């Protein structure tokens, strides 16, 4: 991820549990990361045949290397795009077209 003049590197490990309708992620172990912590999930609840309630949870701790104002800017910029991609993934039955 690039935010203004900073390149932030990290790798995520994703888990899909179709039975419990849960998609989760966390920092992948064994790699160097430029953030302290990233974890989150989508928990999907069917609401009839045409609707799904998705409960989104995320926690990001960038660390002292990035000022708080820059962290807030990155969140405002990236969160809507992340939510839209996850919705396309859900609507596409676990497939996403880039």
In short:
The protein has 98 residues and is an alpha+beta fold.
Q: Architecture, according to CATH?
A: 2-Layer Sandwich
Please give the CATH class. Alpha Beta
Helix content: 10-25%
Overall mean pLDDT: 80
First-last Cα distance: 17 Å
Q: What portion of the residues fall into strands of 2 or more residues?
A: 35-45%
Find the count of extended strands (DSSP E, 2+ residues).
6
Order of helices and strands: EEEEEEH
Order of adjacent strands in the largest pleated sheet: 3-4-5-6
How many separate domains?
1
Q: Nearest-angstrom radius of gyration? A: 15 Å
Name the shape in a single word. Answer: globular
Structural class: alpha+beta
Total helical elements: 1
- Briefly note the CATH topology name: Alpha-D-Glucose-1,6-Bisphosphate, Chain A, domain 4
The name of the CATH superfamily reads START domain
How would you describe this structure to a colleague?
This protein has 98 residues and is an alpha+beta fold. The protein has one helix at residues 68-91; strands at 2-3, 6-7, 12-17, 22-27, 37-46, 52-61. The strands form 2 sheets. It has a 4-stranded antiparallel β-sheet with strand order 3-4-5-6, with no helix packed on it. A two-stranded antiparallel ribbon has the order 1-2. The longest helix has 24 residues, at 68-91. It is globular and about 45 Å long. It starts with a strand and ends in a 7-residue tail after the last helix.
Note the main attributes of this structure.
Alpha-D-Glucose-1,6-Bisphosphate, Chain A, domain 4, alpha+beta, 1 helix, 24% helix, 6 strands, two-stranded antiparallel ribbon, single chain, four-stranded antiparallel sheet, 98 residues
């Amino acid at each position: 991820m690039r935010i203004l003049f900073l390149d932030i590197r990290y790798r995520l490990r994703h888990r899909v549990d179709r039975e419990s309708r849960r998609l989760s992620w966390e920092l992948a172990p064994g790699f160097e990361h430029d953030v302290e912590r990233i974890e989150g999930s989508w928990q999907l609840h069917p609401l009839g045949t045409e609707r799904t309630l998705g409960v989104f949870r995320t926690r990001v701790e960038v660390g002292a290397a990035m000022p708080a104002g820059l962290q807030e800017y990155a969140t405002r910029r990236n969160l809507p795009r992340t939510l839209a991609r996850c919705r396309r993934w859900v609507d596409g039955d676990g497939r996403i077209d880039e």
